[in-house]
Amino acid sequence: MHFNVIARVLGILLMLFSLTTLPPLLVSMWYADGATQAFASALLLTFGIGFISWLPVRHVRHELRTRDGFIITVLFWLVLAFSGTFPFMLAENPGLSFTDAFFESLSGWTTTGATVMTGLDHLPQSILWYRQQLQWLGGMGIIVLAVAVLPMLGIGGMQLFRAEIPGPMKDSKLTPRITETAKALWYIYLMLTIACAVGYWLAGMSVFDAIGHSFSTVAIGGFSTHDASLGYFDSAAIEMIAVFFMLVSSLNFGLHFYAWRNRSLAHFIRDSELKFFFMVIGGGILLTIPALYLTNTYSWQESVRYGIFELVTVATTTGFSTADFSLWPVFLPVLLFMMAFIGGCAGSTGGGMKVIRIMLIYKQGIREIHRLIHPNAIIPVKVGKRPVSERVLEAVWGFFAVYVLTYMVMMLALLATGLDHVTAFSAVGACLNNLGPGLGEVASHYGNISDTAKWILSLTMLLGRLEIFTLLVLVSPAFWRS
Amino acid sequence: MHFNVIARVLGILLMLFSLTTLPPLLVSMWYADGATQAFASALLLTFGIGFISWLPVRHVRHELRTRDGFIITVLFWLVLAFSGTFPFMLAENPGLSFTDAFFESLSGWTTTGATVMTGLDHLPQSILWYRQQLQWLGGMGIIVLAVAVLPMLGIGGMQLFRAEIPGPMKDSKLTPRITETAKALWYIYLMLTIACAVGYWLAGMSVFDAIGHSFSTVAIGGFSTHDASLGYFDSAAIEMIAVFFMLVSSLNFGLHFYAWRNRSLAHFIRDSELKFFFMVIGGGILLTIPALYLTNTYSWQESVRYGIFELVTVATTTGFSTADFSLWPVFLPVLLFMMAFIGGCAGSTGGGMKVIRIMLIYKQGIREIHRLIHPNAIIPVKVGKRPVSERVLEAVWGFFAVYVLTYMVMMLALLATGLDHVTAFSAVGACLNNLGPGLGEVASHYGNISDTAKWILSLTMLLGRLEIFTLLVLVSPAFWRS
Ligand SMILES: [K+]
Ligand SMILES: [K+]
């Protein structure tokens, strides 16, 4: 381990991140909303901490190795979540406690979108902007993480993309190519954000709301500037724009990269993960709409409108809302909630287990049945037309098992804090899948649960975003031994 | 497929099974409890149906193949569960509906132990005997299924035992050796039952209760002749005897077979599944007892007594009770319930996913972490000192994935019937793991849920007992095509 280099990297990161408090600072001055000084202090604090961590080791140079990659990746999120707490604590409104501020900040960075805040409509504009911007920046980090870093670290079968998917990264060393790739990906991400914001604005949102919601839409984040979330606008046009950009942002950004570089949509059509994703979403919609109508929950038109929106926002793990799906009848709350376990495609800003993994697990289930019928046949599992290596399949299974185990451990921990069964079950799901809203007590916000529960769920969000193994490796004795 | 042979086998089976109504018939005459005629009619009906199915095809001979094995295995349980309904429907008390009788009968045969009945203490003795006996016979069937049939069919990685465990069956054809093996296994099973019954009797049970409870103990069944289950006796001695025999019956009967043939306990000590099993049980006990005491639920002595008993009865998937664990504080109900997912060892009468599978999944999880640290190392997964083949590991993963999927589908189906979240979640778990009691509305019995829910849960019990794939293969188009 090269702790000097790690300190240098994180120091630079913090100094850079301190600059991101400038936009909310300007918003605060513009609206004169009383939070200007909080943002100025946050800027100085963050820059100062970064500077102190960078100064003594600024000349150290070492080639970073995979092992350092794990540590930097985990610290990246922790350090940014920590420094992200300053404005929430320093501003008089909301003036959060450290626990609440950390939860909110990490929830933003990981694009989970679980919130401890209520009364959003009465917060300073700058704080609202800042929350939305946290998710947007987090989304950027996630794309680089998902497209470049995790595949390189070999987490949970994601090395699949290095060899088998036309992604931008086929290299296994932490080289300057990350910077190059990152630039291209961020450019795409920025374009999507602008397109989404313009769409919202044309559909009737204010400029402030349009930008804010475009941030949390392309980041699959789900934060909103209103307590009623997107339901505040009560506009079918805005909802359809949101549905479109949520779906686009749930696709592998490697595909967007390819399309942008080759000026061609051909790869979208050939991608089997994408096909599976749309089949799952389509299937979910076809179950939801009739169930809403037949239980007399809504009229036909409303069933279509609310059904599509809620299914897409939950299944993509965005977590906006126009209706409280946790109150929908019979199996619908649980069905929608289960869809979030599938989540977005690999290499997207979405959460969950990722479509490609579910697809591989499904294909192996089918293969097992065929093997029972033809015990001696050799049946490869394929993505598109290429067989997937056993190594990748094992990594996917390992991921699946650890996901289930993490779920159970976290749920038991929450139950130990005194939460009820439904709340504990859904809070873990909402955080591990980086979805945001749960069922029961955490259907609309996380303000009423204990501090202990908030810390457990903070850990859960981080585990979900880092695909568990990145964090798990760090606590394994073998990692520190060798 | 050789439907003639299948009809002949099932016909013989029914004629044989009809004889098992003789003991309850005698019990009924002895106690003059009014159910004599019901059992006589059941005997004739069952024998008659068997005879009619056997007569036209009695001379047909064909070598049975693996494919026929799937069909016979599934029909075996369905046909026996069906014919097991007669006494429940024909006897004036309880005089169950067909749905209830089928649920109760299947619950007996699969040794699930979920019951729709209340007021057990007021039922005819013969009906009580009959229920206990159903579980005992079911347990016999399960041992043959688990030790001989499923490994041969290659279900869920259980072929492991053919090659790698010193089991009695290493052959892959449906030969007369099954009969031989079955005889030895049943002999062991009978000895265990007798030992258990004598133990109960010495500890103070009546002869009737001792035999009845020994039936459901060694079968890991959990039916009782009293509404209060084993709690009726309020005897620490009886509970410790039950704990001992539940643990013994949760071990691989292949090990018992080996010990009996070689007059040696050496294999018990070397078996790594057994070690893992006791570690899991021990760990569960070490969590349960302090949690009971520290939450002021019981005194120290009671915490130890109820903690050990309830943990063992739930973790082995027996489902007796001396205390209502579903009312225990914080995480305990869910913790105990989760233990049932692990269940007994492969080749036992226990339910759940089986210890060996969980052990293999755990070992692979550890391997994944090591692989992330040493990407190029070759790390085999071992049981004892032998590496496990990738083929077996894949089958185990396939099983795990299908288990989770089945769970979700069945839970959604139950929610659609209007059950609440906790009841649906736990009812599926209790039936899929062949445990019996659940949480919420089904904590003590299943009498209050709808008929539709009972049928869904009947299917779930059968799926659990047949390790899902046996049934899943039958509904796959590929099975019928080739
Ligand atoms: K989200
Ligand atoms: K049971």
| Helical/strand content category of chain A | mainly alpha
What is the helical fraction of chain A, as a range of percent?
Answer: 55-70%
What is the percentage of strand-forming residues of chain A?
A: under 5%
Q: Tell me the overall shape of chain A.
A: globular
> Bound compounds, please?
potassium ion
Q: Kindly report the greatest chain-chain contact and the residue count on each side.
A: A-B, 55 and 55 residues
Low-confidence parts of chain A lasting 5 or more residues at pLDDT below 50? 162-176
Distance between the termini of chain A: 10 Å
In DSSP terms (H or I, runs of 4 or more residues), the helix count of chain A works out at 22
What is the H/E order of chain A?
A: HHHHHHHHHHHHHHHHHEEHHHHH
Radius of gyration of chain A: 22 Å
Oligomer: homodimer
Average residue-wise pLDDT of chain A: 86
**Number of extended strands of chain A:** 2
Strand order of the largest sheet of chain A: 1-2
Q: Largest sheet of chain A, if any? A: 2 strands, antiparallel
Family (chains A, B): Belongs to the TrkH potassium transport family.
Subcellular location (chains A, B): Cell inner membrane
Transmembrane segments (chains A, B): 12-32, 38-57, 69-90, 136-163, 184-203, 236-255, 276-295, 330-353, 395-416, 455-480
Keywords (chains A, B): Cell inner membrane, Cell membrane, Ion transport, Membrane, Potassium, Potassium transport, Transmembrane, Transmembrane helix, Transport
